[in-house]
Design a protein that fits this description.
312 residues; alpha+beta; SH3 type barrels; Alpha-Beta Plaits; five-stranded antiparallel beta sheet; three-stranded antiparallel beta sheet; 54% helix; 18% strand
Length: 312
């Protein structure tokens, strides 16, 4: 079915049928729970110690079916009608509401009264006691991401998280931040769905992203790219840096506050280290390729001129 050609009538029909099936399933679940408590028919053979467990299982099964029904029939059309950001908020709030409803219903099935679950110390004790655990930290992190919106669906972001360390490049090369990049596809109750630069889907826990340094590359403008490399002493340092600076100023034109910078960073027994800083709107890999290509051209030109001089 082509979601882009859905008419308003078919969209409303889809909502009505999904709501109707959900109500039917809900009524069937309530009927089963009441029937188990009536002690009539087959229900009177169910041991009393198993009744709470059976009721909890019924609630989980009915809740899971309703959740799957909403996921498959409604959420896949929500992007077309509401847009990616609003549809993500709707999906997250719906999932959270279903989760809370099912959790409260299961506790109620085990004999905990609804008022005490919602307003009493039982609910607060459970929430406070489990808030630091993985599942609740991810749910709370998802709420933070949905409401405060450090990024939107479709944004390309990078995250630096202490939970996922990356080895830094070896000396003497320029240090790089241990950042993971990808395009945001969805935010569900537990995970943020990201498509990485290699085309692989990644599921990162919401709690980790909420604690991470986030770089939103969809909103980037003019930014600085730094790189560092070694050059043999066979190449005159002053001539090389001046020639590289001249070509970079032509290749990356900018105003006076963001001119390309070229300078010596360090010296070694067989080479010296050159640090380059340029400003561009392009991605770092593209800029590095252009800068290094210019360096190779300069060195090849120098060696070619040296060879001609020796022949003459």
């Amino acid at each position: 079915m082509d979601t882009n050609r859905e008419s308003p009538k078919s969209w409303k029909r889809l909502w009505r049928t999904t709501l109707a099936w959900s109500l039917v399933l809900l009524a069937a679940g309530v009927g089963l729970l009441i029937w188990i408590d009536t002690h009539t028919g087959l229900a009177r053979y169910v041991p009393s110690q198993w009744k709470d467990v059976i009721k909890a299982v019924i609630i989980l099964v009915i809740g899971g079916i309703i959740s799957a029904l909403i996921e498959r029939r409604l959420f896949r059309y929500a992007v077309v009608k509401l847009g990616p950001q609003r549809s993500t908020t709707l999906r997250y709030l719906t999932r959270l509401l279903l989760f809370i409803t099912i959790a409260i219903s299961v506790m109620t099935a085990f004999g905990v009264g609804v008022p005490s679950v919602i307003f009493g110390g039982t609910f607060l004790t459970v929430i406070i006691g489990l808030a630091g655990q993985t599942i609740f930290s991810n749910i709370i992190g998802g709420v933070w991401l949905v409401f405060f919106r450090p990024f939107r669906i479709g944004d390309s972001i990078g995250i630096v998280a202490w939970q996922f360390p990356v080895l830094m490049p070896s000396f003497p090369h320029e240090a790089m931040r241990p950042m993971y990049y990808g395009r945001v596809l969805d935010i569900n109750l537990m995970y943020t769905h990201i498509l990485n630069q290699d085309g692989y889907p990644q599921l990162i826990p919401n709690g980790i992203i909420a604690q991470s340094f986030i770089e939103n590359r969809s909103q980037t403008g003019f930014h600085r790219i730094r790189l560092r490399f070694d050059v043999s002493y066979d190449v005159d340092a002053q001539w090389f840096t001046n020639e590289l600076r001249r070509k970079l100023e032509y290749e990356f034109p900018a105003d006076g506050t963001s001119m390309p910078e070229v300078g010596l960073a360090d010296i070694y027994p067989a080479a010296y280290s050159v640090a380059v800083s340029v400003y561009s709107r392009e991605k770092e890999d593209q800029v590095r390729d252009r800068v290094l290509s210019i360096c190779v051209d300069i060195i090849q030109q120098l060696r070619s001129n040296t060879s001609l001089s020796e022949k003459n």
